[in-house]
Amino acid sequence: MRKTTTAHSSTSAPTKHASLLQKNRDPLKSVKMTAAIVAAIMFVFPIIWMLFVSLKPQATTASLPLDWFLPPYTWVNYHEILFESKVLLWLWNSLYVGVVTTILTLIITSLAAFAISKMKFGYRKFIYVFFLAGMMVPGEATIIPLFEIVKNLELLDTYTGLILPMIASPMGVIILKSFFDGVPDEVIESAQIDGCSYGRLYWSIVLPLAKPALAAIGIFTFIGSWNNFLWPFLSIVTENLYTLPVGIPTFNSNYSQSYVLPMTVNAVASLPVIIAFLLFEKQIVKGVSFTGLKG
Amino acid sequence: MKQKRSLNWLKPLPFLLPFLLVYLVFTVYPIAKGLQMSLFDWTLIEKKGFRGFDHYARLLEDPDFWSSLGNTMLFVILSTPTMILLALGLALLANIQTTLQSIFRGAFFIPSILSVSVISYLAIFMLQPYTGFVNNAIQMFGTDAEPFWLNNPTLAWLSIVAVTLWWTVGFNLILFLTALQDIPDQLYEAAEIDGATRTQMFFKITLPQLVPIARVVLLLQVLASFKVFAQILLITDGGPGTATRPLIQYIYEIGFVRFDLGYASAMSYALFFLLLLLSIAQIRGRGKEGSMI
Fold first, then answer.
1. pLDDT tens per residue across span A147-177
2. In chain B, whose CA is at the least distance from the CA of A28?
3. Which domain holds residue A183?
4. Is B56 on the interface with A (CB under 8 A)?
5. Which residues of chain A lie closer than 8 angstroms to B185, CB-CB?
6. Membrane-crossing residues (chain A) (predicted)?
7. How far is B3 from chain A (nearest CA, A)?
8. Which of A106, A132, B157, B280 is the most buried (most CB within 10 A)?
């Protein structure tokens, strides 16, 4: 989608200036490189520290920072956290809620965006503006009435109550609608002449073309759900239904001196997303720039 | 033909209804419900007497409301400019043409995917006096300073802002990076031919080209910072005292610790209007470049 500057200059016509430019591109490069390396180390350092601490024997108290990184190491903490605490259960809850929220969001936003983009009906403009307006409703400021509504629906302390309020994303509709608008109307019309129903148009023609947008919204929704704190914190009281963000504080606040076990909990909570990030870095970064610029 | 047309409005309904229903119940209805709740005495269990605008009058005279709103605004003022400068600076570093580019990008972005609880507890345990990593590291330089990072209002704010920057700068950095890579190369080539220096190019080309995205980041950031809650609750619990308690935490305490949902709703409504004004500003700001809709 976006060319980097390198790709640009290597494909542009080779002129005298181009080669000259390449050479004098950046006299400060080595300074910048050093700064970038230092900054990068500082950014990942707390995460690395967390991973090392999670491998230390529980009685460890290091007075020198270096001690945290040197042996002895042990897997006992992981064993304890995974098999004798609820962290694995909370991890599963977070994944489950995140995946279901993402799938439902993608389904209902793409259906709505399809209707608004590709079907002709009188109140189309009104509906679109009505959905757009939802962007301006800050969830944090309507959390008290939301709590009351979910309570009255008897959905407090359930996965359903956790998921449903999060799936109607106006931003998703906006992004998908602008993406669907790019599918030429002739394609739609000729498919209709061939007897293609709206349902099939949506499923087999328009949706496959929108994969990049769907991926971006999916990633964004999942990260949002994964990190959501306020709503699960208010609506879930049963310990077995906690998501990770709600469960971790209840676990960690029991410790104040030795932080080996708390760091193991944090590591267990973070490793799946760190691995997912390393695998899908490109798509995630692209998704952020995509949704960030649009929404 | 005529019959077909009259049924036309029905056709999109199966596509629209799922979104519409969820949207009405969980996004639109809470706005009306919140107004209703703010006009009554309302406990966790039931609705009680009608109070008219009493809660709003009380809000105006509640020093805790104003101090928590003040704290929220202090956070906005502390975090927004530093966030933009840091995001821009890191974006410039992540834009260096090198094979390490994707490693830099990944390193700056990776804290953003960690849960707020993880980053908060990382901060707590690193900043702890006596056994915390940060103080131990400081003492390696020969000082015996033992700062109590979270027990002093100034240091607590510093810690919260620093942790927030570390945690969320990745998103803004990516926006700046995307904009940087969209600046046409020809601009630089033309400037080079005209004999411009690198400094001139940076101030005459790079910065001006980044103004639109900086505006987007500014508005997104102000809006996001106004909603600050979780990391402060987890790191300082609003303390020491109430020195770092933001508005959302105060609303939460009134509603779910003191069970006064009516008054909490009135404050939510105040916050709602504040954020609404900011989002209107945001959409206006972005409408100018036509990236909205």
1. 999 999 999 999 999 999 999 999 999 999 9
2. B198
3. 85-247
4. no
5. 5, 8-9, 12
6. 33-55, 95-114, 126-147, 159-180, 201-223, 259-280
7. 15
8. A106
Same domain, A119 and A197: yes
Contacts of B249 in chain A (CB under 8 A): none
Among the partner residues A49, A256, A292, nearest to B171 by beta-carbon distance: A292
Question: Which of A247, A264, A286 corresponds to the end of one domain?
Answer: A247
For an interface test with B, the pick among A144, A197, A294 (most B C-beta atoms closer than 10 Å) comes out as: A144
- Measured between beta carbons, the chain B residues lying within 8 angstroms of A32 are 92-93, 96
Render each residue's pLDDT in chain B as its tens digit; 293 residues. 445 555 677 888 999 999 999 999 999 999 999 999 999 999 888 888 898 899 999 999 999 999 999 999 999 999 999 999 999 999 999 988 888 888 999 999 999 989 999 999 999 988 988 878 888 888 888 788 888 889 899 999 999 999 999 999 998 999 999 899 889 888 888 988 888 888 888 898 999 999 988 888 888 899 899 999 999 999 999 989 899 999 999 999 999 999 999 999 999 999 999 988 888 877 776 655 444 33
Same domain, A69 and A89: no
Q: Residue A268 domain-assigned?
A: no
The answer to whether residue B8 sits within a structural domain is: no
> Which of B28, B95, B121 lies at the smallest CB-CB distance from A266?
B121
- A169 within some domain: yes
Number of compact structural domains in chain A: 2
Judge whether A154 lies within some domain: yes
How near does any CA of chain A get to the CA of B7, in Å? 10
Give DSSP secondary structure letters for chain B. -HHHHHTGGGTTHHHHHHHHHHHIIIIIHHHHHHHHHHTEEE-SS-EEEE-TTHHHHHHHT-HHHHHHHHHHHHHHHHHHHHHHHHHHHHHHHHTSSSTTHHHHHHHHHGGGGS-HHHHHHHHHHHH-TTT-HHHHHHHTTT------TTTSHHHHHHHHHHHHHHHHHHHHHHHHHHHHHTS-HHHHHHHHHTT--HHHHIIIIIHHHHHHHHHHHHHHHHHHHHT--HHHHHHTTT-STTTT--HHHHHHIIIIIS--HHHHHHHHHHHHHHHHHHHHHHHHHHHTTT---
Q: Do B30 and A142 touch (CB under 8 A)?
A: yes
- Residue A109 sits in the same domain as residue A170: yes
Q: Is B275 on the interface with A (CB under 8 A)?
A: yes
Q: Are residues A93 and A17 in the same domain?
A: no
Q: Which domain holds residue B98?
A: 49-284
Same domain, A99 and A239: yes
Residues 89-108 of B with CB under 8 A from A: 90, 92-98, 100, 102-108
ipTM confidence score: 0.88
Q: Which residue of A has its CA nearest to B19?
A: A108
Whether B273 is in a domain gets the answer yes
Q: For the segment A10-25, what is each residue's pLDDT rounded down to a tens digit?
A: 444 444 444 444 545 5
Confidence (pTM): 0.88
Instruction: Report the domain count for chain B.
Output: 1
Domain assignment of residue A290, yes or no:
no
Which of these three, A78, A109, A128, is where a domain ends? A78
Could you give the CA distance from residue B16 to residue A114 in angstroms, rounded to a whole number?
9
